[in-house]
Amino acid sequence: MKAVTQPIRKYYKYQYSQFTRPNLSGYGLLGGGSFTCADDGTHSPAYYPLYKAFNGEMTGTYNQWISATAIGNVTIYNPKPINVSQFTITNGSSGGNYAIGNIEFYVSNDNVNYTYVTTYTASIFTAEYTHNIPISVNGYYKYYKLRIQSNQGTSSYCYVREIQMTAIEQEVIEGTSSDYDYYKDVTECQHISQPVRKYYKYQTSSWTQPVLTWNGLVNGSDFAVYASYEGTPAYYAFDDNASNYWSGGSIVSGNTIDYFIFSQNKLNISNWNYKISSNTYNRPEEGSIYGSNDNENWTLITSYSIERVAGTTTFDISMNANYYNYYKWHITSSSNGIPISGGKWSNGFRCNITLTATQQTIVEGTSSDYDFYKDITNYKAIV
């Protein structure tokens, strides 16, 4: 590397543009690469999930979010920081006590430390009424949290049709020495020794399924789960409470549901057991399970078709997997031409999950006993 006497100064500037809120058809990952939302798992009934308040549809019984409690916590995430100047929030199909009563607004850039912004108190409680709520935010933030309470807190539900935002989006681009907002001093390095070869090997051991109290953070927790539809929270499938079930909601026939699992240690799952809350129909369950190590490129592990017999509530999916950090349960069908009220899926996707698996960890090896190696080079800064 070329020696330098001073650090290299890199210049950066902020670029601003009008933010256009995407329309959602399901949930994404908080902290991921795309706009998404999340509530605290309390939406009721199961087919009124929060993302329905972000789908751009202003009519239809199911195109709204209904909180299952008098206060619903809504988290909105955008990968690029935004400055929201106005929220436009529309009441759902039921007014009165089911309308929006008041909303507290908070902002954050880490989804942990939140700063209070303001409180809006509604005065009109008509169904489908639109609240135009200006707010003044000092800075740009990736996370906005709305604490929405139903009118006077007298109802256990709050109906919200749609949540829109007027905002400016901020991104960082390269600047120049004469046009920049900030800079970083980057120091070049040089080798001070020959590469040192480090040896590593894989170690396998039995795995104990954790008991979850929340969904967790993908790439942040030891074990985390989430689902494309959460009528009840995804972690209910792993909370060790026989009375709680993850519900994928009552999804219109022809759609699919995806349930995702992340583990810091790679897992080789040999059996995927799921227990449903009840079973009154004879019909097949169909779907597939995939594995991935980057959450983008998925490998099909197995496809299954299980003939459900009325009265049976526990089912096993046996598979011959490799070791993966991510698993996706892709559920495609639970009907066999049997009429279900409203053409919706029913109890087939209220379930608990029990996994049989081994885990893989990485330990130090030796030159005579290893699975892979890395050549490590030491550097020192050139100043």
Order of secondary-structure elements: EEEEEEEEEEEEEEEEEEEEEE
Radius of gyration over alpha carbons? 25 Å
Structurally, the number of domains stands at: 2
| CATH C-level label of the largest domain | Mainly Beta
Global morphology: flat
Please, what is the average pLDDT? 84
Q: Share of helix among residues?
A: under 10%
Contiguous runs where pLDDT drops below 50 for at least 5 residues? 335-348
Largest sheet: 10 strands, antiparallel
Task: Summarize the structure in words.
With 383 residues, the protein is mainly β. The chain folds into two domains: 15-171, Galactose-binding domain-like (Jelly Rolls, Sandwich), CATH 2.60.120; 204-363, Sandwich (Jelly Rolls), CATH 2.60.120. 0% of the residues lie in helices and 50% in strands. The protein contains no helices and 22 strands. It has strands at 8-18, 36-39, 65-67, 71-91, 100-108, 115-121, 130-134, 141-150, 158-174, 182-186, 189-191, 196-206, 223-227, 246-247, 257-276, 283-292, 299-308, 314-318, 324-333, 350-364, 372-376, 379-381. The strands form three sheets. Strands 1, 2, 3, 4, 5, 6, 7, 8, 9 and 10 form a ten-stranded antiparallel β-sheet that branches. Strands 12, 13, 14, 15, 16, 17, 18, 19, 20 and 21 form a ten-stranded antiparallel β-sheet that branches. A hairpin with a 6-residue loop joins strand 16 and strand 17. It is flat, with a radius of gyration of 25 Å. The two termini are 13 Å apart. The model is unreliable at 335-348 (pLDDT under 50).
